[in-house]
Write a structure and sequence with these properties.
This protein is mainly beta and about 325 residues long. The chain has two domains: about 210 residues, Jelly Rolls, CATH 2.60.120.10; about 80 residues, Jelly Rolls, CATH 2.60.120. It has seven helices and 20 strands.
């Protein structure tokens, strides 16, 4: 079995829309500009996370999964996904608005030999007046959508929400969306890098080229229905888990902590990932002690079910696993 809590070296991604907050706010310690994403835990081909602590330091997540199988991810998860780690965990800094985009579901993505992309966002920080684009204002259809796409007025029929710290949005496949400028989010998603770019604000990349759009693929994926509200409500009762999002691909809870909390994950049959989105906590397991600050992430293997988390001040964790 695995007898340690696991930390990983973040994989930093330069993006045309990225900024400096992953360094300034979340202390990712990089040089240069336009760092838009920090992949905290990844099994995407070519971007496999590497363990940064303990006796397993230097091993990739993929190698660890092949060696330890259900001890790492749990019986049910291993039976379902085998040697593919099912989640991709990120922090994202949008200095500029991202492209308007949509993700395919598993069935549509299958032809490309990939999982679909269901995800959720937790707003870690937002500048005053910043927003996100999420879903349609009213039910739409292909004709209306293509008209506004052609006229470059797509935002006129899309829902725009002003956001602030702590807001949560669930983004299932088919829901048109874009993270607005000035927003830092924690993103939990299926292991997939599939995105259908709909509109990119007519901007050019560093080489002076427009980025590729995926108009036809997006049409097959878009859900044109609307909702009254897209924001996900949840509670923040201290020192217990508060369910935020649950779907077939992941469950995410909010865990506000002050003082000491004994954790018993024996009923989960899953790995559990903790993202610190406020303050600083200490994980204790046997003789291991790991300090996890805002912007850091830790993975608890399925075979470790009992440990302690403590904080001397008000701190908040996102707890994610697969039911």
């Amino acid at each position: 079995m695995i007898d340690q809590l696991l930390r990983f070296t973040p994989i930093l991604k330069q993006k045309i829309w990225g900024g400096e907050k992953l360094n300034q706010l979340l202390h990712k310690n990089f040089e240069g500009d336009n760092i838009g994403e920090s992949w905290e835990i990844s099994d995407v081909d070519g971007d496999e996370s590497i363990i940064s602590n303990g006796a397993l330091q230097g091993k990739t997540l993929r190698a660890l999964l092949k060696e330890y199988q259900y001890h790492l991810v749990g019986n049910h998860v291993y039976e379902t996904f085998g040697n593919e780690f099912p989640l991709l965990i990120k922090f994202i800094d949008a200095k500029e608005v991202l492209s308007i985009q949509v993700h395919p579901d598993d069935a549509l993505a299958d032809a490309q030999e990939s999982f679909g992309k269901t995800e959720m966002w937790y707003v870690v920080q937002a500048d005053e007046g910043s927003n996100i684009i999420i879903g349609f204002k009213n039910d739409s259809d292909t004709k209306e959508y293509l008209h506004h796409l052609k006229e470059k007025t797509l935002v006129d029929i899309l829902n725009v929400d002003e956001v602030s710290e702590g807001d949560v949005y669930f983004v299932p496949p088919g829901r048109v969306h874009a993270i607005g400028a000035g927003v830092v989010i924690a993103e939990i998603q299926q292991t997939s890098d599939l995105t259908y770019r709909i509109y990119d604000w007519d901007r050019k990349d560093i080489d002076g080229n427009y980025r590729e759009l995926h108009t036809e693929k997006a049409l097959k994926a878009i859900d044109f229905s609307s909702q009254i509200s897209y924001k996900t409500p949840y509670s923040k009762k201290e020192n217990i888990t508060n369910e935020v999002v649950t779907c077939p691909y992941f469950t995410t809870n909010m865990l506000p902590i002050e003082g000491e909390v004994q954790i018993d994950n024996s009923t989960k049959d899953s790995f559990v990932i903790y993202m610190c989105v406020k303050g600083e906590v200490i994980f204790r397991y046997k003789n291991q002690e790991e300090k996890v600050k805002m912007g850091e992430t830790i993975l608890v293997p399925a075979c470790i079910t009992d440990f302690e988390i403590s904080s001397s001040s008000q701190s908040e964790l996102l707890e994610t696993y697969i039911k």
